[in-house]
Specification:
about 325 residues; alpha/beta; six-stranded mixed beta sheet; about 10% strand
Length: about 325
Amino acid sequence: MSPDNKLLPKRIILVRHGESEGNLDTAAYTTTPDPKIQLTESGLLQAQEAGARLHALISSSNPSSPEWRVYFYVSPYDRTRSTLREIGRSFSRRRVIGVREECRIREQDFGNFQVEERMRETKVDRERFGRFFYRFPEGESAADVFDRVSSFLESLWRDIDMNRLHINPSHELNFVIVSHGLTSRVFLMKWFKWTVEQFEALNNPGNSEIRVMELGQGGDYSLAIHHSEEELEKWGLSPEMIADQKWRVNAHKGEWKEDCKWYFGDFFHHLADSDKECETEATEEEQQHEEEVENNLLTNSEDNNEEELCNGQCS
């Protein structure tokens, strides 16, 4: 790893909470505030298993560098904090640098107590309106979540740049973010600069599912180092998005992928290859416009003459 990358986390790992009472029965939201929804017994076991998978992933990836550490960020909701507690069973104290409760990675706010029938109707409206921009009454849209996740990412980078976590350069650092399904998808959208259309095609992670962004040799992060193409397809990534993840495996930090279609192709019908070609096309378009104006004037003049002739004959 280059000296520029030595303080970057080796992995940024997103973990969704285990199965909750609300996942099992949405009626729970009618009497229990969303932040107080608990994990089920199955959800607790899922979280323990996620902890074992995380430990195996981090500890076995580089036997030649056994001095690895973990830093956790966790949503303040009861179900995410319970998930973190169960994950923690797999880690010794010396491996954990610290934990931060981070309100900006909480669940999307759907309002206060939820009325089942009204919520069913609201979710139908969301599908018609669009999942990203639809704002729940008294709640948030995914776009609102995007804004606060963007703010969280800025803080995360400041933690790294200013070495606020007092990282030992000889330690391999891993960030684990224990959060929620939509929040995790929005995090990936912001990080990889995915469009709204690409976001709306993504599938929600399962309970206690792990999604791993790993640092490549060039200093960029990619989902394709730890995850297979089949997995990325199941998540809803398009072939172009998967190709971009594969490119990032060896990309250098700050490099620009020129043929990434959602940086250019999705926004422009055509871009000229040179200034001269652009000027030529602009001249041709101007001439075409002038010809259209002249033709319209001639047509209007002929119509006016015909109308005057008709009026003269009819008077």
